[in-house]
Amino acid sequence: MPGRQPRPARTADRGGRPGGVRHLLRAAGALGRGPVAAEHAGRPLPRASDGGREPRPGRGRGVMGRHILFATIPAWGHTYPVLYGAAELRRRGHRVSCLASPRFAAEVAKVADPVPYDSPMDSDVGRAELADMSKVLRLMLQETRASFAALERVVRADPPDLLVSDVLNMAGWLVSRRFDLPLVRTWPIFASNEHFSLHQDYQSRTDDEESMRGFFAEAADFLDGVGLGSISPMEFFESQAERNIALFPRSLQPRGETFDSRYTFVAPCIRPPEESPDVPWLRAARPLAAVSLGTVFNEQNKTGFFRACVEGLEQLGWHAAVALGDKVRPEDVGPVSGRVLMRARLPMIDTLQHAAVSISHGGLTSTVEALAQGVPVLIAPQIGEQHAVADSVERLGLGVRLREPFTGAELAKTVKSVVDDADMARRLAEFRRTLLSDRRGGEFADTVERELAGQAES
């Protein structure tokens, strides 16, 4: 279908600093499912009842009763934080659809009509590649192809009035360009503008020249194939949105005061507790530390990290619930007492509800989940974004950074200083209230409806 020529894509935020998806790929630690197994879906959420653009139908209608299409990626840290927003939009009378791979279809179906597709990231191979940064670009392009095809089918058969797309779902921006759809971009990881760049400030990129050349060649072929040949691979890589929702409080965002009205910061949806057979042990364990490096980094062999954590907590006489991942065996960590529970994966929300401290890699979603329980965080960053999270946590006085390698004695000293800090406990309680103030997704839905209203007036 012929359409208007697209306006040029912005390739940088105001001031010229990169702010698109390019600088985010090194933050692939945020792509993991989180430290909870996929089969643990949690308790139910609150239910609510060719180079140019193709024309978008429906312009000029009122705001109520619109069709809103969500494009996430199959990762708990990216899908779950938007679900209360989707549920609230449905409660307000909108029709909500959401991209969903088989692993996430049941959870998505609680708040939206699932748009099924087979995701390369759902496979064992795909999840393993998230831990190999040289393969992330290729995997993300494969994911873009699959999600673009699914989104295109929806747009042609049942055109949405607005697209809500995760910053790492590159197909969302492309579909919005192809079909002239208004776009709201969600950020479950730190955003960037002219004052803060995750790539420049934390050296989060590791792509080399050869891998980038290969990526750009494959991206150009893909763009030609979907009728978007006028968009360069660099524009595709550096895409921007005029309306953005950051799924965490502004105070956590580095240089948060510099983000203008294009960015709305909201409290995310926090996963509910699970029905896990480990809950009785967790409930009885006092005091308890939760230990995990998240799904992606648990896939790397971090035996020394886990051994030091267990040794330090044993010295304190604490209980420890440790998510080891699939690469570290309990016997590799060494002999432990009955105060230590080691699993490949743990029901993390249940664990955090009973924990006095969280020791983690500092993934933003994992950190927010701990802070939502009022738990101080000890962060051992593995990649650039997690160093940024550690900096924000220390700036707000909500936890401390762990510098690897550390000994068990050093960890024990740090844990004791954190849990004995009365001022930190007060700050944690205040921050928890901030996180829980918008649990129903009201501000998220307000932002989407403002964009709908603006489009209706245009």
TrEMBL record:
GO terms for molecular function: hexosyltransferase activity; UDP-glycosyltransferase activity. Residues 327-446 form the Erythromycin biosynthesis protein CIII-like C-terminal domain. GO terms for biological process: antibiotic biosynthetic process. CDD domains: GT1_Gtf-like (cd03784). Gene3D superfamilies: Glycogen Phosphorylase B. InterPro entries: EryCIII-like_C, Glycosyltransferase_28, UDP_glucos_trans. PANTHER family: STEROL 3-BETA-GLUCOSYLTRANSFERASE (PTHR48050), STEROL 3-BETA-GLUCOSYLTRANSFERASE UGT80A2 (PTHR48050:SF13). This is Erythromycin biosynthesis protein CIII-like C-terminal domain-containing protein. It comes from Nonomuraea terrae. The lineage of its organism: Bacteria, Bacillati, Actinomycetota, Actinomycetes, Streptosporangiales.
